[in-house]
Design a protein that fits this description.
The protein contains 16 helices and 19 strands. The protein is of the alpha/beta class. It folds into 3 domains: 152 residues, FAD/NAD(P)-binding domain; 92 residues, protoporphyrinogen ix oxidase, domain 3, CATH 1.10.3110; 100 residues, Alpha-Beta Complex (Polyamine Oxidase, Chain A, domain 2). Strand 3 and strand 4 form a beta hairpin. The two termini are 21 Å apart.
Length: 429
């Protein structure tokens, strides 16, 4: 079999969308299945994704591409998500009905602190400064501070303001009010519907994989360079493959370790961090847990978010039972990461409202590394130093959430992978 010399590292959405457009390439994936974070697992008659995925595209072309890839299996789902606050479930995005969940003092505090920050904004470059200025002290503390710190494992004063732009986009107090009253001023975070494959998100990577040369269980353990080009890759510390063009979606920190980087670049790479994730899937002895797709838990619970796959697609359930997936945001050096699966599951069950332990039929626990790039205050400077060094290799390209150290949604991963694949295809002799 003749091998292509165009190599793609990683069979997640970014790598696969690039490969599907390029065609003439080999995709090496260290796991035993494709998809990366966009995988669907089967567990005793039920199915669940890693963390739950939704597809919302600003660009109509991207939506058409998604529909073409997924085919007739695509569902249009009306979004319902809530926040668990002080023993109550509050609809999210915030609706005008939230005033009935606030007492008069809370309502007054929300508006007076919002107006105060319009007159006296905080000066600083952190998430805390920007979110407080945008929403006021009260709403920041009630709806953003604790959850954000739980997700990233950092004080909000140590998180870059860029996270506000990335995750909250141009959401503001005024836009919240407009959306709540008139459903106007729509932004992506407020999308009321989303697209989803009826058999789970794995339909997307599985469809992208069709006809591609994908080598599973293939870990890239070395790179051979000559001048400013990568000439070979080493797989599983054994086999070498010649390389004309190389697209990497592996963690950028790991990529740097495979290159002959100067010490200052290595120092910057060490400072780039990823957040890891534990998914706890509970199979329940009842047909429904809630009506929500997501429930957010900013409080003291060890988990931060819950999704119920059956609410995304009936095909994710056996009809008689439902399952729920809870996400624990952590680092692999944390005690919870090292704990036994049964201990983790029991702690989740004990922390979860509206559920008795007797209602749990079974559980499984998955650990996922490098789930989210961490935007600390210095990440942009460190990333620039690392990416500038990588770009000095004329045939090496970084791509995706982990490869490009970008907190990108699925539509962006699909768009950027497709665009890079097209660019590389047009450059082939």
């Amino acid at each position: 079999m003749q091998n292509s010399k165009n190599i793609i590292i990683g069979a997640g959405i970014s790598g696969l969308s690039c490969a599907a457009e390029l065609k003439d390439c080999i995709v090496f994936e260290k796991e035993s299945s494709v998809g990366g974070l966009s995988r669907t697992f089967k567990f005793k008659g039920l199915s669940f994704d890693i963390g739950g995925h939704r597809f919302v595209a600003h660009n109509p072309e991207t939506e058409r591409l998604f529909r073409k890839i997924v085919g007739k299996s695509v569902l249009k789902v009306k979004r319902k998500s809530r926040i668990y606050r002080k023993g109550k479930f509050i609809n999210y995005p915030l609706e005008i009905g939230i005033i009935f969940d606030f007492n008069p003092l809370e309502t007054f505090s929300a508006f007076i602190t919002y107006l105060y920050r319009k007159l006296k904004p905080l000066k600083g470059q952190s998430f805390m400064h920007k979110a407080t200025n945008r929403f006021g002290d009260y709403l920041y503390n009630e709806f953003f501070k604790d959850y954000t710190q739980k997700v990233w494992g950092l004080d909000c004063k140590d998180i870059s303001e860029e996270l506000v732009n990335t995750r909250l986009q141009n959401v503001s107090m005024i836009r919240v009010i407009k959306y709540a009253l008139f459903k106007k001023g729509l932004v992506k975070s407020f999308a009321s519907t989303f697209l989803y494959p009826d058999q789970g998100i794995a339909v997307l990577p599985n469809s992208l994989s069709q006809g591609l040369d994908i080598r599973l269980n293939s870990d890239i353990t070395g790179l051979v360079c000559a001048g400013n080009k990568v000439t070979k890759i080493v797989v599983n510390n054994a086999q070498e493959y010649p390389c004309d063009k190389l697209v990497s979606t592996m963690p950028i920190t790991e990529l740097v370790n495979l290159l002959n980087a100067p010490q200052e670049v290595k120092n910057s790479a060490v400072k780039l961090k990823y957040r890891d994730l534990i998914c706890v899937f509970l199979k329940l002895k009842k047909p429904h847990f809630s009506e929500s797709h997501w429930i957010y838990f900013p409080g003291k619970q060890m988990f931060g978010r819950l999704h119920e796959p059956k609410n995304w697609s009936p095909e994710m359930s056996n009809g008689e039972q439902t399952g729920i997936c809870l996400e624990i945001f952590c680092h692999r050096y944390d005690d919870i990461w090292k704990a036994e699966d049964e201990e983790i599951a029991n702690r989740v069950i004990n922390d979860l409202p509206l559920l008795n332990a007797s209602e749990v039929d079974d559980f499984c626990v998955l650990r996922i590394t490098n789930a989210y790039p961490v935007y600390d205050l210095d990440y942009r400077r460190n990333f620039k130093k690392v990416s500038d060094f990588i770009s000095s290799y004329e045939n090496l390209f970084i791509l995706g959430r982990t490869g490009g150290f970008k907190y990108s949604n699925m539509d962006v991963c699909l768009e950027e992978g497709h665009a890079l694949g097209k660019l590389l295809k047009n450059s082939l002799p």
